[in-house]
Amino acid sequence: MPGVDIKSSIGDGNMAHQEKLCPNPGDILRVSRGLYYHYGVYAGENRVIHYASKTGDFGDDICVHETTLNSFCRGGRYMVCIFSSTYRKPDLGTKVLDMIEHPTLFTIMDSLSALALELSSSGFHLYSGKETAERARSRIGEDKYNIIFNNCEHFAVWCKTGISESAQVSSVVSLLAAIPAKTT
Protein backbone atom coordinates (compact mmCIF):
# COMPACT_ATOMS: atom_id res chain seq x y z
CA MET A 1 0.00 0.00 0.00
CA PRO A 2 1.69 3.31 -1.07
CA GLY A 3 2.81 5.65 1.69
CA VAL A 4 2.43 3.13 4.53
CA ASP A 5 5.04 3.62 7.23
CA ILE A 6 7.03 0.48 8.00
CA LYS A 7 9.22 1.79 10.80
CA SER A 8 10.80 4.98 12.08
CA SER A 9 14.26 5.60 13.38
CA ILE A 10 15.18 8.95 14.88
CA GLY A 11 18.16 10.80 13.45
CA ASP A 12 19.66 14.03 14.75
CA GLY A 13 17.57 16.81 16.29
CA ASN A 14 16.51 18.15 12.90
CA MET A 15 15.20 15.12 11.09
CA ALA A 16 13.95 11.61 11.62
CA HIS A 17 14.15 8.82 9.08
CA GLN A 18 11.22 6.73 8.04
CA GLU A 19 11.00 3.70 5.79
CA LYS A 20 8.01 3.88 3.41
CA LEU A 21 6.79 1.61 0.64
CA CYS A 22 6.37 4.51 -1.76
CA PRO A 23 8.03 7.94 -1.43
CA ASN A 24 6.30 11.16 -2.43
CA PRO A 25 7.78 13.70 -4.86
CA GLY A 26 10.11 16.02 -2.94
CA ASP A 27 10.94 13.44 -0.24
CA ILE A 28 14.60 13.35 0.74
CA LEU A 29 15.86 9.78 0.47
CA ARG A 30 18.78 8.28 2.35
CA VAL A 31 20.39 4.92 1.59
CA SER A 32 23.22 3.29 3.50
CA ARG A 33 26.45 2.63 1.64
CA GLY A 34 28.09 0.97 4.66
CA LEU A 35 30.51 3.67 5.83
CA TYR A 36 28.29 6.58 4.82
CA TYR A 37 24.77 7.50 3.73
CA HIS A 38 23.94 8.68 0.23
CA TYR A 39 21.14 11.25 -0.22
CA GLY A 40 18.86 12.25 -3.07
CA VAL A 41 15.53 13.94 -3.82
CA TYR A 42 12.65 11.77 -5.01
CA ALA A 43 11.35 13.38 -8.21
CA GLY A 44 8.34 11.10 -8.72
CA GLU A 45 7.73 8.28 -11.22
CA ASN A 46 10.57 6.15 -9.75
CA ARG A 47 13.16 8.90 -10.41
CA VAL A 48 15.70 10.41 -7.99
CA ILE A 49 17.83 13.54 -8.41
CA HIS A 50 21.17 13.30 -6.61
CA TYR A 51 24.79 14.47 -6.56
CA ALA A 52 26.92 11.56 -7.76
CA SER A 53 28.87 10.08 -10.62
CA LYS A 54 26.74 8.54 -13.35
CA THR A 55 28.41 5.19 -12.66
CA GLY A 56 28.37 5.25 -8.84
CA ASP A 57 28.64 7.72 -5.98
CA PHE A 58 32.21 8.79 -6.77
CA GLY A 59 34.23 9.27 -9.95
CA ASP A 60 35.43 11.87 -12.42
CA ASP A 61 31.97 12.88 -13.62
CA ILE A 62 30.19 13.80 -10.37
CA CYS A 63 27.24 16.09 -11.01
CA VAL A 64 23.62 16.60 -10.06
CA HIS A 65 21.58 14.30 -12.29
CA GLU A 66 18.43 12.23 -12.40
CA THR A 67 18.43 8.44 -12.22
CA THR A 68 16.05 5.59 -11.43
CA LEU A 69 15.12 4.75 -7.83
CA ASN A 70 16.67 1.28 -8.29
CA SER A 71 19.92 2.75 -9.56
CA PHE A 72 20.01 5.21 -6.65
CA CYS A 73 19.42 2.45 -4.08
CA ARG A 74 21.93 -0.02 -5.66
CA GLY A 75 20.22 -2.92 -3.91
CA GLY A 76 19.91 -1.10 -0.56
CA ARG A 77 16.76 0.05 1.21
CA TYR A 78 15.98 3.73 1.30
CA MET A 79 14.71 5.78 4.20
CA VAL A 80 12.70 8.99 3.87
CA CYS A 81 14.07 11.92 5.89
CA ILE A 82 11.40 13.70 7.91
CA PHE A 83 12.38 17.28 8.73
CA SER A 84 11.33 19.21 11.82
CA SER A 85 9.46 22.46 11.21
CA THR A 86 11.92 24.20 13.56
CA TYR A 87 15.64 24.31 13.13
CA ARG A 88 18.11 23.43 15.91
CA LYS A 89 21.19 25.64 15.80
CA PRO A 90 24.56 24.47 17.15
CA ASP A 91 25.91 25.79 20.46
CA LEU A 92 28.31 28.25 18.86
CA GLY A 93 29.65 29.56 22.20
CA THR A 94 30.80 26.12 23.35
CA LYS A 95 32.45 25.41 19.99
CA VAL A 96 34.35 28.72 19.99
CA LEU A 97 35.44 28.20 23.62
CA ASP A 98 36.70 24.71 22.69
CA MET A 99 38.61 26.21 19.76
CA ILE A 100 40.27 28.79 22.06
CA GLU A 101 41.15 26.20 24.71
CA HIS A 102 42.30 23.56 22.19
CA PRO A 103 43.32 25.37 19.00
CA THR A 104 43.65 22.47 16.54
CA LEU A 105 42.74 22.34 12.87
CA PHE A 106 39.66 20.29 13.74
CA THR A 107 38.33 22.56 16.53
CA ILE A 108 38.85 25.55 14.25
CA MET A 109 37.01 23.77 11.39
CA ASP A 110 34.20 22.77 13.76
CA SER A 111 33.84 26.35 15.04
CA LEU A 112 33.87 27.80 11.52
CA SER A 113 31.29 25.21 10.43
CA ALA A 114 29.05 26.14 13.38
CA LEU A 115 29.47 29.85 12.59
CA ALA A 116 28.58 29.30 8.93
CA LEU A 117 25.53 27.30 9.98
CA GLU A 118 24.52 30.02 12.46
CA LEU A 119 24.78 32.65 9.73
CA SER A 120 22.98 30.57 7.11
CA SER A 121 20.22 29.19 9.34
CA SER A 122 18.27 32.42 9.04
CA GLY A 123 17.40 31.14 5.55
CA PHE A 124 15.68 28.00 6.90
CA HIS A 125 12.39 27.23 5.19
CA LEU A 126 10.67 23.87 4.93
CA TYR A 127 9.74 23.60 1.24
CA SER A 128 6.76 21.60 -0.01
CA GLY A 129 7.38 18.39 -1.94
CA LYS A 130 6.72 20.13 -5.26
CA GLU A 131 9.05 23.03 -4.39
CA THR A 132 11.75 20.61 -3.18
CA ALA A 133 11.66 18.64 -6.45
CA GLU A 134 11.75 21.90 -8.45
CA ARG A 135 14.78 23.10 -6.45
CA ALA A 136 16.53 19.78 -7.17
CA ARG A 137 15.74 20.05 -10.89
CA SER A 138 17.10 23.62 -10.95
CA ARG A 139 20.56 22.26 -10.11
CA ILE A 140 20.70 19.40 -12.63
CA GLY A 141 24.05 19.56 -14.42
CA GLU A 142 25.87 21.28 -11.54
CA ASP A 143 29.37 19.79 -11.18
CA LYS A 144 30.82 21.57 -8.15
CA TYR A 145 30.90 18.53 -5.84
CA ASN A 146 33.08 18.76 -2.73
CA ILE A 147 32.96 15.98 -0.13
CA ILE A 148 33.34 18.48 2.76
CA PHE A 149 31.41 21.54 1.55
CA ASN A 150 29.02 20.46 -1.25
CA ASN A 151 28.17 16.76 -1.20
CA CYS A 152 24.96 14.78 -1.82
CA GLU A 153 23.65 15.48 1.70
CA HIS A 154 24.34 19.23 1.41
CA PHE A 155 22.43 19.19 -1.88
CA ALA A 156 19.40 17.23 -0.65
CA VAL A 157 19.06 19.15 2.63
CA TRP A 158 19.36 22.47 0.73
CA CYS A 159 16.58 21.38 -1.63
CA LYS A 160 14.25 20.77 1.34
CA THR A 161 15.31 23.55 3.76
CA GLY A 162 17.35 26.18 1.94
CA ILE A 163 20.31 25.38 4.18
CA SER A 164 23.30 23.53 2.78
CA GLU A 165 24.60 21.26 5.53
CA SER A 166 25.78 17.72 6.12
CA ALA A 167 25.27 16.05 9.49
CA GLN A 168 27.76 13.38 8.38
CA VAL A 169 30.52 15.93 7.78
CA SER A 170 29.69 17.75 11.04
CA SER A 171 29.84 14.45 12.96
CA VAL A 172 33.25 13.56 11.54
CA VAL A 173 34.64 17.03 12.27
CA SER A 174 33.26 16.91 15.83
CA LEU A 175 34.71 13.44 16.33
CA LEU A 176 38.11 14.55 15.08
CA ALA A 177 37.94 17.67 17.27
CA ALA A 178 37.39 15.48 20.32
CA ILE A 179 40.63 13.56 19.76
CA PRO A 180 43.26 14.93 22.16
CA ALA A 181 46.23 16.53 20.45
CA LYS A 182 49.51 14.67 20.86
CA THR A 183 52.00 16.86 22.68
CA THR A 184 55.73 16.31 22.32
From TrEMBL:
GO terms for cellular component: cytoplasm. It is an enzyme of class 2 (transferase). Residues 28-168 form the LRAT domain. Its EC number is 2.3.1.135. Keywords: Acyltransferase, Hydrolase, Lipid metabolism, Transferase. It comes from the Bacteria. The keyword Magnesium does not apply. The keyword Cell cycle does not apply. InterPro entries: H-rev107_PLA/AT, LRAT_dom. GO terms for molecular function: N-acyltransferase activity; phosphatidylcholine-retinol O-acyltransferase activity; phospholipase A1 activity; phospholipase A2 activity. One of its GO terms (biological process) is N-acylphosphatidylethanolamine metabolic process. Pfam families: LRAT. This is Lecithin retinol acyltransferase (Phosphatidylcholine--retinol O-acyltransferase) (Phosphatidylcholine-retinol-O-acyltransferase).
